[in-house]
Amino acid sequence: MKVLTIPNDNIIRVCNLLNQLIGDVTSKNLFTGYGLFHKDKDMFAVWINNKVYLRAKGELSVKLKGLGCKAFATNELNKRFVLSDYYALTESILKDNVLMRTLIILSITQIRKEKLESALSKIGRIRDLPNLSIKYERALKKVGIDNVDILQQIGAENAIVRLKKADIGATEAFYWRLRGALENRNCEFYTEKEKEKGLNKLNEILSANGFRRCKRTLKKVE
User: Fold this and answer.
1) Where is the TfoX N-terminal domain (predicted)?
2) Nearest 5°: phi and psi at 30?
């Protein structure tokens, strides 16, 4: 296995090496150091003082500490520069491509989840979510799903189960609208691979609750 050796100065080489692990890595110059982004959106790490600092909170931060990673300290550069929730990756991690890739993906996943939760928290009514309207809001309220928080807790699959139990029109199209709403995306733009994976998850929960499984269709969401 090729060892990921991080160079001291060349940020372009840093990005190239990280691209070998996850792809679509770019850098942006901060007022000190560089931010490392995935797909130009999610800053998962920073390159400062010849070190890679990975962003981590909660369980991921505990995992990194367990691997010997130290949190960024302001005194490494200056007292005015504050960088919370970033941990310097150790040499042993940098030499383990599989572990390095896993940790980066966990960081990116965590960032995206936080962004999604933040976006949904700003939406008060179900009708204001992507793909939904007052018609869908009324249907969900009939089964005790009164707001966005409850819908998030229950999830699209279990919401469909509730609707089916109440004999309310719980179509596959409704499922994709709900799933898209909870992922803050247009339900028309799911790939075939995503549709297959999502439908498998829905069918598992439908079957566990005594309902017939949905057949795979290629119909456009109505």
Assistant:
1) 18-110
2) -90, 175
